[in-house]
TrEMBL record:
GO terms for molecular function: metal ion binding; oxidoreductase activity. Keywords: Copper, Metal-binding, Signal. This is Di-copper centre-containing protein. Gene3D superfamilies: Di-copper center containing domain from catechol oxidase (1.10.1280.10). It comes from Coprinellus micaceus. PANTHER family: TYROSINASE FAMILY MEMBER, TYROSINASE-LIKE PROTEIN TYR-1-RELATED. Residues 270-281 form the Tyrosinase copper-binding domain. Residues 1-18 form the signal peptide. Pfam families: Tyrosinase. It comes from the Eukaryota.
């Protein structure tokens, strides 16, 4: 009792004297640009253990059961809150210089939600399309496995696009694709076969199934040679243009999965959105790592679609309802706060 009294006295003395001087608050440790205490070593889908894959999928399902944090918006679940943010900001974060920075941080926030809100304890994951056997149909990819993946193709005849006579919602097929083939039908196998999403297609809000139309349309963008070619760009400007060019290495993954993934606005209805964007982010990361002195903080491209200016490192990007505003600079070195990840 007496010893305890002395100890607590010493503790009080220590906390009164030492704490205010030496101990920064936890928040202060997470200042953007500072070193992370934990790094998420991102790993490709097929390099996760089967147990990790199942846990990841369960976490995605969990996120779609949690309520949104900001109930004043259109999202009905926490999962949809990420999709809603993407819908809201689509016209501000595509075909601009901060396309890759914005999607990098969106992926971080989504991965963190799976870990912190839904108990996923494995690494954040991504899709390296070049590992799919080009001699086999895309549906043979382990990504589309119905037991340990995200389920397969949409079933023809189970979904009809709502009419959009004035093209108000941004539903449109990629050039050379037919809308009815791409919005083929509801996914009826695998973990998301009973899913109801409430946002999309496009900017509409309708309750509907997870729609896909898996196809080989853009496979050629994902040969090892084609991806090497993207990585051989020697300026950020040419790199970002080659990534974003329709229907290149960004649009290609959207087009091949088909359905909701082909929609610029509502693509985040499909959990594969985050694996595809993780794959793109990894290309950016690899491009940066090949010459960090010159590339880690290289940025260019307009601040608005069809703008003639260039985005700077100080440009602010926002994530309504998901997290605080950050600057483009804060995304450039993924190993620092607030992103804290690397690729194995
Ligand atoms: C529909 O709108 C999108 C953008 O929202 C545009 O890219 C597309 O060309 C339009 N399609 C038609 C047929 O007007
Ligand atoms: C924007 O950056 C690109 C690539 O560095 C450059 O070619 C272009 O001249 C810049 N435009 C302006 C308006 O500064
Ligand atoms: C975050 O960024 C958005 C868009 O630039 C801006 O409208 C908003 O005021 C910013 N919020 C804060 C808290 O700075
Ligand atoms: Cu996007």
């Amino acid at each position: 009792m007496r010893a305890l009294g002395t100890l607590s006295f010493l503790f009080l003395l220590w906390s009164a004297v030492a704490v205010p001087v030496h101990e920064p608050s936890v928040g202060a440790l997470e200042v953007p640009g500072t070193k992370c205490s934990i790094i998420d070593n991102r790993r490709e889908w097929r390099d996760l253990t089967t147990e990790q894959r199942l846990k990841y999928i369960n976490a995605v399902k969990c996120l779609h059961k949690l309520p949104p944090k900001d109930k004043t918006r259109a999202a009905t679940t926490r999962f949809e809150e990420f999709q809603a943010t993407h819908i809201l900001l689509t016209d501000r974060v595509h075909l601009v210089g901060h396309f890759l920075p914005w999607h990098r941080h969106l992926g971080t926030l989504y991965g963190r939600a799976l870990q912190e809100e839904c108990g996923y304890d494995g690494p954040t994951t991504y899709w390296d399309w070049t590992r799919d056997d080009m001699s086999l149909p895309l549906l043979n990819s382990p990504i589309f496995d119905s037991a340990t993946g995200f389920g397969g193709d949409g079933v023809e005849g189970t979904y009809t696009l709502p009419s959009d006579p004035n093209n108000q919602t941004g539903i449109f097929p990629f050039p050379g694709q037919q809308a009815s083939k791409i919005w083929k039908g509801c996914v009826q196998d695998g973990p998301f076969k009973d899913w109801v999403v409430h946002l999309g297609p496009g900017r509409m809000n309708t309750a509907h199934c997870l729609v896909r139309g898996v196809n080989e349309f853009m496979r050629s963008a994902y040969t090892a040679a084609s991806v090497e070619n993207v990585l051989s760009s020697n300026s950020f400007e040419s790199f970002r243009l080659i990534i974003d060019r329709l229907p290149g290495v960004h649009g290609g993954g959207h087009a091949m999965v088909g359905g909701e993934m082909t929609n610029t606005y509502s693509a985040g209805a499909d959990p594969l959105f985050y694996l595809h964007h993780g794959g793109l982010d990894r290309l950016w990361w690899k491009w940066q790592q090949a010459d960090p002195t010159n590339r880690l903080y290289a940025i260019s491209g307009p601040t608005t679609q069809r703008g003639r200016d260039n985005v700077t490192l100080d440009f602010e990007i926002d994530f309504p309802a998901l997290g605080p505003n950050i600057t483009v600079r804060d995304t450039m070195d993924s190993s620092l706060y607030p992103n804290c990840f690397t690729y194995e």
